[in-house]
Amino acid sequence: MAGNSDTNKNAVNVREMIAEKKKKKSLSNYTEKFIPTFLLLIASISLLTTVGIIITLFTEAIEFFKRVPVWEFFTGTVLKPMSQNPEFGVLPLINGTLISTFIAMLVAGPIGIMSAIYLSEYASDRVRRVLKPLLEILAGIPTIVYGFFAFTFVTPLIRSIFPEVGATNILSPGLVMGVMIIPMIASLSEDAMSSVPNSMREGAFALGATKLETTFKVVIPAALSGIISSFVLGISRAIGETMIVTIASGSSKNFTFDITQSMQTMTAYIVEVSSGDAPAGSTIYYSLYAVAATLFIFTLLMNILARYLSRKFREEY
Amino acid sequence: MSQKITVKLNDQVVKKTGRQEKKRAVFETNQLNLWYSDTHALKDINLSIKEKEVTAVIGPSGCGKSTYIKTLNRMVELVPGVRTTGEIKYKNRNILDRNFRVEDLRTQVGMVFQKPNPFPKSIYENIAYGPKIHGIKNKKILDEIVEKSLRGAYIWDEVKDRLNENAYGLSGGQQQRLCIARCLAVEPDVILMDEPTSALDPKSTLRIEELVQELREDYSIVIVTHNMQQAARISDKTAFFLNGEVIEFDETDKIFTNPKDSRTEDYISGRFG
Amino acid sequence: MRYVDEAVVEKRMKSRVRNNSILKFIFLLSTLFGLIVLAVLLVRVFSQGIAWLDWDFITGRLSTDPARAGIMGAILGTSWLMLVVIPVTLFIGVGTAIYLELYAKPGRFQNFIATNISNLAGVPSIVYGLLGLTIFVRALDFGNVVLAGGLTLSLLVLPIVIVAAQESIRAVPNFLSEASYGMGATKWQTVKKIILPAALPGILTGSILALSRAIGETAPLTVIGIPALLIPFPGGLFDTFTALPMQIYYWTLDASLVAEYAYLAAATIIVLLVLLFLLNSVAIFIRNKFQQRY
User: Fold this and answer.
1) What are phi and psi of A232, to 5 degrees?
2) What residues in chain C have their Cβ under 8 A from chain B's Cβ atoms?
């Protein structure tokens, strides 16, 4: 060690030791130059993931559209991939997806926003501190558990009241999906409402408005774009949700609006086809990617819209 | 107000004039200009800071005094969009030169900040941090450096039994002396102090001031302060900054008893700032 | 003449105040609705599964006979997945966060990557499954093994880890890095010795939450093609495997054939929920215990 001779003397000369070490520091100099490039490489993995998704989905989807015309795919109301004369109309899947999403939002929208109003405007600090983490638990339950719950509890429950409902149907998973999305809408809308400045509320209170009137006439209009953004994210989440509908809605490719029947969503179709033995290179195999690309575009548009809305909201305050 | 200062000063004058000798300059600032994006923060600064002296930099807030000492160790570059012209010579090398390694500069020019900023580590690790990053790893040497630095900052007796405790358990004043000790651990030539007592109570302030008096024996010190009495009490030279310019730079006694510029007088007598 | 008739105001005030109290009650009920469903779900799962949950079930191998079936294979599979997900997401997630927060010059490229990450966070998990199937299982020819599943799940939760790490790094006060630079430390020394240690509790908390998201995921694994009945235990990265959520999935699907499978699924759910509960407790513990106050 360079410093050993120094320790024998009483005083350690740090200055000299540092100067000494500095001469040998070329290696760490090297690291210092290399690190930013290295980190950039790591950071570009997230870009590669996006590129990977897009290339994977669209090259295979294009292969599909060589065999099935785009027009036929997007306007076809019949989906019979396994049949002798297969038909590949995606509308039954889009229909199933939209209906389940619609049912889910009927549950999650009103309940989510009312929870948000309660948490943001009415609840005391103590109550909020208890309720919010509990709602987060709801968001942390794996979707497969919700699927199990929909299939083995909610469906039998509905059938005991309305016997005409099928053992697999779109209603039950739609409702359960709604419950799953409540915390997301509640917490995002609450964030939007709590960031409305208090001075605006005080203005209304000072005129003698009740909390309810203040909430609906001042807070909600002010937080509107944030609230809508939370709805859009909820919709995106419902569109992409897979396990609940796969388990509880079955695999009938009905093109119907009857919510008591089994329907298939885009996500459930992907699960069904990929877990079956679709031979690579077959039209049905490529249809997987065409459906996934459609799904990807749906959710991407929703996410872009949500981000646009929430940015607009943030600009206001 | 101004009368009080003058009275106090008289004791100091005697003490200081006793040891006037020829001193070399550590920092020669020539025609320094600095911009934050579009704001011209320092204008044509010319200052010569001598070794083993305490140089105080005073002036109202926003006058560029903090910017100036942060330029002396190039910490000012952490703000995006900073541009400089002119030169600052440290031991005859221009530190504003692109080729000057900031790490070398900052090793030799230590800094104590406005708010005590110990690392969230043990007291020992706080002091050993500097030597360690500069490659000193020998435990025995580090132990020695830690003790010496803590003694140098007159905090050894208060912390010697709890070197392994988190530095945030210390009081504000102790934290600041710990930061000074941390600075001493790499044995810099110059110590820059950016309003080191502004976050402290009067008693801790006094201890830091005493410490500065001790340190001037071995180190060149540049201290920014908004407290004029403090400048008068502890410094040999004082520079008065206003709107990014040096209005006056002279012996502290002269600045406080007989300023040449009327703006200096106005500031010192509390008419603005 | 007065514009405000006090009698009318008085009369209306009563109904306004009443409306306020009624709706307050309804809002409270809405908030409780989600929690009531949660309670029903938990009670239901536990009452169905708890009787089947014993030591033999946990340590046993899979079997078509409900009385003899066990989930050791699924537990091992999930553990192996975690062993892949933890290092991969920590390394890439923290690296990306350091780059974005501390090295990238603010501007177009940084915004571009940030937007890209938030888009990735919104991509449905099933799409990641297809990515994994196409890249890891087929193109790189790993097959449906632990490594392919683990990497797929890593990509899925990576945005969560990146954002959590970014937030923790941003929360490290500037004065700490200033102090370090002031000592003559280089940027990387400052990052390694000051910023990362100070951000570590937050990073770990975020990573554990991401991990619990990963081990509950089913959809990507169904796409990759996890066999329904797999008897041998996985012993390495290149072994085929099953995982807890996959086992729940298969047993739930087959519950219409063999009624007891529903109970096996419930018992497996209990195991999965307990695992998630433990992970979250660790995360909360780390957050509370190691949070430095400045």
Assistant:
1) -60, -40
2) 106, 173, 175-176, 178-186, 189, 193-194, 197-198, 292-294
